[in-house]
Amino acid sequence: MINAKSILGGIALSVAVATSSLAAGVEYNATSTGLALQGYDPVAYFTDGEPTKGNWKITTSYDDATYRFASEENKIAFEKNPEAYIPAYGGYCAFGAAMGFKFDGDPTYWKIVDDVLYLNLSKDIQERWEGDIPGFVERADVNWEDIEDKTPEELQAQ
Q1: Which residues have C-beta within 8 Å of that of residue 1, sequence separation ≥ 6?
Q2: Residue 128, CA atoms < 13 Å, CB-side half-sphere
């Protein structure tokens, strides 16, 4: 069995800085200005198969977060069905959610599984997550019900 405290303890220092970028709502990982995915285009993961920076001139808002897009076509696709493109767990790290925490998801460490975009905190964390994606997704889905409305700081203080 994985000991969450020991695994997460090694990354606590880098996470302390990372969790400070929370927007108005706690269920979405965004900068203090409300920018989601650090400005990466959520649709491009699905259409281009890679993280692509969005254009600051091509934006839309969804659930109090601002999303940027590389093209007007991607913006239109997102606006038609945002739930198809937003990352799981509000853009927080999928492995962290499986452990019951909220850590910033890095848009460059991603994977699409069953048409859902998942982000992870770092390369090492993503490699651990990839060791049992179905199991970690199942745990994160269950945990998300309890942690969605809590701040990262509240979860770390437990």
Answers
A1: none
A2: 16
Residue 13: pLDDT band (50, 70, 90) is very low
Mean pLDDT calculated for residue range 65-80: 97
- How far is 42 from 119, CA to CA, in rounded Å? 11
DSSP 96-116: HHHTT---BPEEEEEEEETTE
d(CA 148, CA 158): 15
Residue partners of 26: CB distance under 8 A and separation at least 6: 102, 148, 149, 150, 151, 152
DSSP type of residue 70: S
Give the largest CA-CA distance in the chain: 47
Number of helices followed by number of strands (H, E) in the chain: 8, 4
Task: Please give the structure tokens belonging to residue 121.
Answer: 């905190």
Instruction: Answer for the pair 65, 35: CB distance below 8 angstroms, yes or no.
Output: yes
Angle (deg, nearest 10), helices 123-130 and 133-147: 110
Query: So where are the chain's domains?
Result: 4-156
Q: State the first-to-last Cα distance of the chain, in angstroms, to the nearest integer.
A: 20
